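tool=predict chain=A
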Amino acid sequence: MTYTYPLPLRWADQDSYGHINNSSYLTYFEEARTRMVAAMLPTDEAERRRHAFVVQQALIDYKAPLDYRNDPVSVDVWVTRCRGARLELGCAIRDMEKTYAEATIKMAAYDLETGAPRRMTEQELAYLSRYSDS
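tool=predict ok
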């Protein structure tokens, strides 16, 4: 299953050509990813710090220019790999007609208090499995 977030474009994200600037795509992926995992994160701030996820690598393949418009785009996020401390997500920005960008985001489960990677909990693995593409 894929998580889909309908993301409204921001006028300030366009460049002098009227296209959404390439740097905004990473923010769009972050916004959708954050919303996808929000339900599994602890509500207590101290617990959130001990059960964080950090980005290790982001690879974006730009497919087509995205012109600014009032209609939102769909930002899709799915889990391609999830094991131990490693989480890999596939992402896409698209609408009904085309795909504008695809990305692979590699993340690590991380304890901000100790400054070290941590193994994902059974609850996290169960939650993320609902968005697995396998």
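The helical segments are 22-37, 45-50, 122-129. The first helix runs from residue 22 to 37.
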